[in-house]
Design brief:
Helix content: 25-40%
Order of helices and strands: HHHHEEEEE
Shape: rod-shaped
Distance between the termini: 70 Å
Structural class: alpha+beta
Radius of gyration: 28 Å
Largest sheet: 5 strands, mixed, barrel
Number of strands: 5
Low-confidence stretches: 213-217
Strand content: 5-15%
Number of helices: 4
Length: about 220
Amino acid sequence: MDEFLSAAIGFPAVIFGAALVVIVCFWLLVLVGAAGHDSFDTDLDTGPVGLGGVPVAVSVSLLIVFAWFGSLTGTVLLRQSDTGSATRAVLAVAVLAGSLLLAWGAVRLLVHRFRRFFPAEPPPSRLDFVGSVCTIRTGTVTATFGQAEVVSRDGSTALLQVRRAEPLPSPSRPSGPGAEDAPLVMGGTGLLYAYDEDGEFFWVASYDAALDPGPNA
């Protein structure tokens, strides 16, 4: 037991041991709902190193666990060998690199086998709001000013910049439905029918639920 503890707090196992503590704390936060398992997916890209296809937290956690176990095993074996202190120091660095390399290989193999259980989802896009019903949040909506609130698929709300086509739209503006329909005022309901990438706003028209043909149209 003493030999195990000594190896765990010695170089190089202590490096991965400290990272392992952080990983354990992170997954405890995930269990209590204080963090998401995909919290780092937008910050890190593990695809270039062959670990893509699963949440970053999963691949990094497995990498740390395997590297810690490999470095701990190598440290124990190294301390049982009859080598000098200088040679042991060099071999300890080799254990560090070797355990990390072996861990990467093992995690890459697991990721390749189990990535089908983590289907890739397209990143959210503003175009996802096209076709959505919104609520006008400004006094009125014109061809140059207006804001509306829309509910996304996950239940969250977003405040968008919206514009209304003029009665005689120019060629640069899409000819949307109802250019001369009822005015869009605060609290009214509108339909987002197009997105202008250059102006970064949505074209909106007044919407009447009674005219909705339903999802099977």
